[in-house]
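We store sequence, tokenised fold; for instance:
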Amino acid sequence: MTFIPRSVVLATVAIAGLAPAAATTAASSAHTAVAAVTSCVTVTATIPVGNQPIGAAANPKTNTTYITNFLDGTVSVISGKKNTVTATISLGMGAAEPFAVAANPKTDTIYTGDGVGGSTFGAVSVIAGKTNTVVATVQVGGSPEGVAVDPDTNMVYVVNEADGTVSVLNGQTNTVVATIPVAVGFGPIGVAVNPGTNTIYVANLRDNTVSVISGQTNTVVATIPVGAGPFNVAVNPSTNTVYTADFFGNTVSVISGSTNTVVATIPVGLSPLGVAADPSTNAIYVTNEADNTLSMISGSTNTVVATVAVGPSPRDVAVNSKTGTIYVANNGDNTVSVLNPCPK
């Protein structure tokens, strides 16, 4: 999962080739397209967390959700049963600025991508879910803003935005075993894994592409053009479908994992940032940072079927595939919105 400071978001508008006026026009069009949708997803709780919550990841096996707090250098641990913060984990690196977070349900291990203030490198904090303690810190490249785990291979993939690389960590040894140049991608940000195909997908914000990496060879095997400003990426392994949240285009690009082509483009809300897929229901959830909403997309029809108001400046989103519960990190008021899915 991924975070970019708002100042960087605005600065990259020009780099991405979208003038502010063009971006505003596109945003207005996308907002009109979704405004009439009636929400069936409901907010059931709002949980206070740390300062500037950014990343979100759920472990369905333990019914626990993890939220990175950028300014605190901490991770909030939320019990899905109680809807309360049961622990706050300090990353113990003074200058740590945690961006993304991912969980391996098979090993009950959590990984955060941490920028380190004043440094040219970043780190990954390895957290034991059983004890809520940091058990290792692994140095990676600069600005590690995306993290994803393949639970089948126990490999962790970290996107280093400043370096234009992907670090591959062995989850058993907590060591970097490969560094993959994302040569065709400029500004790599988000990352997701399809365990069924051993394939990794990297969203490249500034050149509007997704790099496809083979987990077997650790090489880029395809590059897919998508919408404007892909910030985050998610995979539904049950359908072998990939989704990108296109921040500047106010859309979600739908990619066939079989053909590595975009098969649909879906208008959502304003400035979509986070995206998560529920393989149990084939529902996709997208946070819209500029209009404080969450869009729910049907993976069967590739249409928005629900739109619901959440907290201010929603960033990342996570879904518990066992309970269907959705968690949204609201950067604007330091909370997490907890939502129930639409009735089946």
Summary: The mean pLDDT is 88. The chain is about 5% helix and 55% strand.
